[in-house]
Design brief:
single chain; mainly alpha; Recoverin, domain 1; two-stranded antiparallel ribbon; two-stranded antiparallel sheet; 58% helix; globular; EF_hand_dom; Sarcoplasmic calcium-binding protein-like; calcium; EF-hand-dom_pair
Length: 182
């Protein structure tokens, strides 16, 4: 995709749905302070201290690398978010960084008991960190469980997460963060 080509409509819809998870006042801007506060407020009730510290480190890294972009913005508009996540199409290392980041998310946050898989309940708790309603979890879980074994492996988790941000087609990965919100 060239810099002058428009972003694919379906991909922009995914980014909008992701953006509104954090744009609670729907003003079209996510501030780093609000982003961090939203994540911390949910996590402190669901995670132990070690997990909370890891999670907040991941959230901070996500802001700095994926949201703020090279300009290191502290206030990000929807189109800033789209532009910064569109780096996935032009920077080969971007997808690899995403995948490594989601591996850590899987191992330290989503897989609560450390058994190498994420159950529906664990996925519900993971999505709950981002404000996704528990009733929205079953379709997302089923979409990510590509081999149909009733659990999500590390590869299924990371592939779906990266697919959400990197794939322009309508694939099951579109449900990684729950149903579309916008």
């Amino acid at each position: 995709m060239s810099a002058s080509a428009p972003y694919p409509e379906f991909w922009v819809r995914k980014m909008r749905s992701f953006f509104v998870i954090f744009d609670r006042d729907l003003d079209g801007v996510v501030k780093k302070e609000d982003y961090m506060d939203i994540c911390n407020a949910r996590a402190k009730y669901q995670l132990n201290q070690e997990q909370l510290e890891t999670y907040m480190g991941l959230v901070n890294y996500a802001w700095d690398y994926f949201w703020a972009g090279p300009e290191k913005k502290v206030n990000v508009t929807f189109w800033d978010c789209v532009h910064n996540h569109a780096r996935t199409f032009g920077e080969p290392a971007f997808q690899e960084k995403e995948k490594k980041w989601f591996y850590v998310y899987f191992e330290k946050i989503a897989d609560k008991n450390g058994d190498g898989i994420v159950t529906r309940k664990e996925y519900e708790e993971f999505l709950g960190l981002f404000g996704v309603h528990p009733l929205s979890v079953p379709p997302s879980f089923e979409a990510l469980d590509t081999d149909g074994d009733g659990q999500i492996s590390k590869e299924e988790f990371a592939n779906a997460a990266v697919g959400f941000f990197c794939c322009t087609a309508d694939t099951p990965a579109k449900l990684f963060w729950g149903p579309f919100l916008a």
